[in-house]
Amino acid sequence: TPGADICGVIAECDGVETTATSAQITVGQGLVCDGSTTEAPCESGTNRQNADAAKDRGDNCMGNSSPSDYASLGLSGEIALGFDTDLQGCSVTIAEATGNDTEGYDVYVCQTPVLDAATCIGGAVLQSADMGGSISVAVPAAQ
Question: Domain locations in the chain?
């Protein structure tokens, strides 16, 4: 399916790893399997729009997994993950499934699940993964 496939996201703060407690997805453009169709490329009937699939470390991320090990975003899609801790000064690691196509993504850290310069740290993207893949982002500490 098109777009980034997010396997998992963890935050490390003062040596303690934590995973997300909530997740929501806004699917972008292109066919992202929702579990309701069995037409190509969704033959398995697996829901790839399940944001909860990204609420772990992403260690087990198989392309043919059912239920899905990852959340597919579609082109220009978004996933918002909520953590029960302030992420300022932490590192955030995103595990992304690499596929046949290079599909980049941007990382923001915001106080709300909506991309808004007023509530996002730094007011903009913290780091881009232009070539897709897994990355770690250093979130600036509070000033």
Answer: 5-138
